[in-house]
Amino acid sequence: MPAPIRLRELIRTIRTARTQAEEREMIQKECAAIRSSFREEDNTYRCRNVAKLLYMHMLGYPAHFGQLECLKLIASQKFTDKRIGYLGAMLLLDERQDVHLLMTNCIKNDLNHSTQYVQGLALCTLGCMGSSEMCRDLAGEVEKLLKTSNSYLRKKAALCAVHVIRKVPELMEMFLPATKNLLNEKNHGVLHTSVVLLTEMCERSPDMLAHFRKLVPQLVRILKNLIMSGYSPEHDVSGISDPFLQVRILRLLRILGRNDDDSSEAMNDILAQVATNTETSKNVGNAILYETVLTIMDIKSESGLRVLAINILGRFLLNNDKNIRYVALTSLLKTVQTDHNAVQRHRSTIVDCLKDLDVSIKRRAMELSFALVNGNNVRGMMKELLYFLDSCEPEFKADCASGIFLAAEKYAPSKRWHIDTIMRVLTTAGSYVRDDAVPNLIQLITNSVEMHAYTVQRLYKAILGDYSQQPLVQVASWCIGEYGDLLVSGQCEEEEPIQATEDEVLDILESVLISNMSASVTRGYALTAIMKLSTRFTCTVNRIKKVVSIYGSSIDVELQQRAVEYNALFKKYDHMRPALLERMPVMEKVTTNGPTEIVQTNGETEPAVLETKPPPSGLQPASQANDLLDLLGGSDITPVIPTAPTSKPASAGGELLDLLGDLNLTGIPSITAYNKNGLKIDFTFERSNTNPSVTVITIQASNSTELDMTDFVFQAAVPKTFQLQLLSPSSSVIPAFNSGTITQVIKVLNPQKQQLRMRIKLTYNHKGSAMQDLAEVNNFPPQSWQ
């Protein structure tokens, strides 16, 4: 059989291929020749054939049929064969294939070989693809090589030990004696791999972390020698001595100094030296400075050192390299909560990053800008962010508008400024705002009694001839319906009043109704506004009746239903119309842990929190109340079950049994209503004896993550055929590791015995982030509602 072509010739041949098909044909032809050679047990050219096979594997072609040939090469006594064999094993084998176990004995023999380079090959292979079984069998050999005086083998053994610890953490203690003298080594390669090994052990074991804290002075000394040492051509990179080792030592110091005062104190001085003596003109120096900043921020460092670290990040923001600017913004965003004043000094530089062409830098700068807003700078920061909102890409507008709303609500210097800011957002990016923007602004306007005339005039001007921003039109329609009389009277002291007649106001609202740009929800707002004006205007009531009657035959079912019911108000219940359409009272924003009910406000379906208070004694009967709700447009308002306490006669059977006298334990199976991101919510069911139509649901919220979940709020909504009452929770903090639960009771009245459905909303803080999620619960057991 003729000798196979060399690897170099194969590469040259493949590179001459003009098409993918031609290359594939060449590869298939060569693979066939290699298979034939393998079948004939050709030992002479096995090494050459496996090398060619590895090149094909690198090109993406299948090469699994060469796995056993790699094992044969590993078993060979020639170094050139072993080298290709071990390389093939690292590329073609992994722990998912049982074939790799066949070479365990070969690796063990080579770890005890007389040639250091063969030992190095075996260590590299074991550290690359060794399975947990191989690591257990060969850990003793690796530990023996870790104690050798040969620096070439020690550095490879240290990296192999890292892999062994990752695969079999319980073997960690085996390497503990060998680590004692590793940091005394002068060879930088051994030092580097030793620091990597110590870092891995500290991250995986708190006991190891406590044990190695005594090495902090030695690590500080090594780092100081690196900084102060003169030029060394062997380790110099752009004028800095071994930056790779410096970065690794800084990472290990960060782990050792975290939550430890003594260790942090020991490394404060050296961190200050690194921060002030490192050259920043090259990227190598910036990498070291970045690791230094992360270490300073993570340990219990002095306040002056933290300011120095933030100033370094501020200098990064002025760098021309976009990656460095992005890293700086991300790091500042993590530290802004703990060192707010120090980050504030770089506010102008951060705001300038909003004008950057890179979208990732823009996003980080926007998030950091919102984090910097406070009561002192809110006017200036909002001005910059509103300018950014005008010019930014569409994908930023929703997040930016939401951030402006939250910041304005929290830090608004006055109600007028607050209203002006939100109206500016609606005018600029109204189509991108969140769904809750409209009800929130309506609530703000309602509560700002002295601003009603000013607000309705501003909104009236804003929508003249422009209906493109639907949320703006919805708010304007609602305000015109509520305060149309103030608009017509011109009672505005804040700015020059406009002269608008009743007919002009109705023209605007009718234009909204017939505009092609108006959504169905917006038309609902406009029709309800027109109906409200029938009690605020005096000369145009007949025109309003005509408009309402026209939409009684609208093809939009929602609009038609409203119009029909409003017509009924005019014809059958005209005496009730002024009371039903009177001005909305001041809305109180409820922040307690109450149920979420789906309510409609002028056509917009929004979640609203209902207070679970006992109703006053003067409330009208439920049937009359429901009739009124039906008149107002088929609202989905779910009345809350009265919670007035009832007196019970004393029981001769004892007060303990009396506590359970209200419940009938029926053995209804429990369900898991929600299980995501470590948060689990279970429902258990009981039936009330006093009212068989009432189901008592007890929720139990547990947390399987490693950190507590705080500010937990559970809200629920049910269809309008049900009535729901949510009692107060046992706590607002869910302990970590399932060490405790929050319980809360829900009472659901189901008089029609319909299948129970529920929508739940969960909000909580976890790992420093605000979390929110919605879920549908449709798997209630039949016993809970039948």
From TrEMBL:
PROSITE patterns in UniProt: GAE
Which Pfam family, just one, is annotated for this protein? Adaptin_N
**Keywords, alphabetical:** Coated pit, Cytoplasm, Cytoplasmic vesicle, Golgi apparatus, Membrane, Protein transport, Transport
In the bilayer, the protein is annotated as:
Peripheral membrane protein
Locate the region Disordered: 597-619
Q: Where does the GAE domain lie? A: 666-781
Q: What SUPFAM superfamilies does UniProt report for this protein, alphabetically?
A: ARM repeat (SSF48371), Clathrin adaptor appendage domain (SSF49348)
Cellular component (GO) terms are: AP-1 adaptor complex; clathrin-coated pit; perinuclear region of cytoplasm
Q: Which GO terms describe its biological process?
A: intracellular protein transport; vesicle-mediated transport
Q: What role does it play? A: Subunit of clathrin-associated adaptor protein complex 1 that plays a role in protein sorting in the late-Golgi/trans-Golgi network (TGN) and/or endosomes. The AP complexes mediate both the recruitment of clathrin to membranes and the recognition of sorting signals within the cytosolic tails of transmembrane cargo molecules.
The name on file for this protein is AP-1 complex subunit gamma
Upper lineage ranks? Eukaryota, Metazoa, Chordata, Craniata, Vertebrata
